[in-house]
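Could you join me in thinking about how sequence relates to backbone shape in a protein? We need material for that, and I hope you will provide a protein of your own picking. Label the sequence line and the structure token line clearly, so we can match residues to local backbone shapes. Would you write everything just below, so we can both look at the same thing?
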Amino acid sequence: MRPVTSFRLPLAAMAACVLLSACGAPPGGAPPAEGTPQMGVMTVRAQSVALTTELPGRTVPYLIAEVRPQVGGIIQSRKFREGGDVKAGEMLYQIDPATYRAAYDSSVAALAKAQATLRTTQLKADRYKDLVAISAVSRQDYDDAVAALGQALADVKAARANAESTRINLAYARVDAPISGRIGKSSVTPGALVTASQAEPMATIQQLDPIYVDVTQSSASLLKLRQAMAQGDLEKAGTGAAKVHLVMEDGSAYPLAGRLEFSDVTVDQSTGSITLRAVFPNPNADLLPGMYVRAVLQEGVKEQGILVPQQAVSRNGAGKPTAFVVGSDHKLQLRALETERTVGDQWLVRSGLKPGDVLVVDGLPRARDGIEVKTVPWQPGGDKPAAAAGAQR
């Protein structure tokens, strides 16, 4: 039995050697090498970049007029439809004119009486002038006639002024629209008593085309904006005005562009902000007073701007932006960047990248400075880089 046992031991040792060889263990016992990382990349290009600033704002009527009576009386009729459009000079209300017409007629009669008296005194003064020359009347009588003529002239002027005043009051009994625009609700109805220059307006008219949009901006930003406009860096809609676009409260874009005006600018001492006023055409009255909007101001265009996806930019331990580029040797290089601002979902890069650089966008968790990688084109909006064999470097 012992010879058989000694024969089986060498066979077991040989089987163990064959099994190790089948497992692919390399000589020396070293582990197999890890595969080369694959990165989704894009080529950096310079392009024209429109620079904009979005500011919150409110719509304000271009013109606004509160209609108040200039004379007191009973409202006889209302001549407009609430919420409708009115023209300047259009009749809105009729106040009972009876007392004002009577006063006007009386003043006209007083004027006629004064004019008749003036004619009589004028003739008397003329006659006395000839008679005093031949001593037919005394000098005193002549002087009295001249004084009476002067008083008659003054009476005529006073009567004419009184007639004009009563005519104006009679005209004020008709309440007309001072401006063209859209009129709101009426605070009085026919039969109501109104008084001259009362505190509560009878109605309010607002001109909506064009319409103002008041936006707020820091005073420091405004100074930069004025400098850019003076240097011609801004796209202008007219002399001293920059183009502005609106985003409505629901996120939709207002179809008509406006222009920015710098008149009536004051600084809020508590916030350091400035109210800017933009003017927009509003032919269909889509913009109503008091609406919240966002004004997109076109600051200018950077002709050789470099935009990169935000996901391609990381931060180092100091919080500075960095990115990886692929060199001609297929190895990664870590670049320190300077960014200006975000433009949509991209960064506008001031320095650190140049046109032609191959920027790593996808696969950053495996990226390390100096390692060799394989690259495939990065597709915007895709979850993975396109696996095009011919695109590998």
